[in-house]
Known about the structure:
- This protein has helices at about 5-25, 35-40, 45, 60-65, 85-100, 180-190, 195-200, and strands at about 115-120, 125-130, 140-145.
- The chain is an alpha+beta fold.
- The longest helix has 22 residues, at about 5-25.
Amino acid sequence: MKTKRRDFLKWTSLLGLTAAGSNAFSYSGENSSPVSTLLTKNTSAATTPMSEENLSIIGQYGPWASSLNEGKLPSHSFRKSEWTNLGTWKDAARKKLLDRMAIPNLGPTPKVTVKKQYTYDGLHIEELTWQLPYGRPTDAILLKPANATGRLPAILGFHDHGGNKYFGTRKITKTSDQQHPLMVENQQEYYSKRAWGNEIAKRG
């Protein structure tokens, strides 16, 4: 039976994190660093066998992570008595979220250039590009029904990063009959032989 790549990655990641957690908690050599010394002071969580109920994606770090808020509400939970005004809570929560995400300053909205536009498979297609303050230019593909008029609902579709990152948008779209063999195989394996970006766009 052929193993799916996503299943393989899921289980190897889980096993790797569990092994890493075990090594970090078990090391208590004479010259151990302050960090490893701190971790070894509480080994009960690390050595407790993990059951189905407490199985964590971060392995043996799971019990420690869940204990940080165990028995108490997180600081920005709206269920805490200090938050009585919805608007005030939203402002504070949004500020905390943006701070934790550490989003870089991207400046003003970049200028979008239409490199090419054409009709294929009943869709109007535009190949777009824009430049952020860093890195290579961003490429994108806009798809909509060829005869559509007026405003339409939009879906921002990101390609997966499961492999073949080089192909980017071509992984989820089909813009001509001449498709790269690897993309034919990719869509057949993961998307039931479909370019799901095209299929959603056809629905308007």
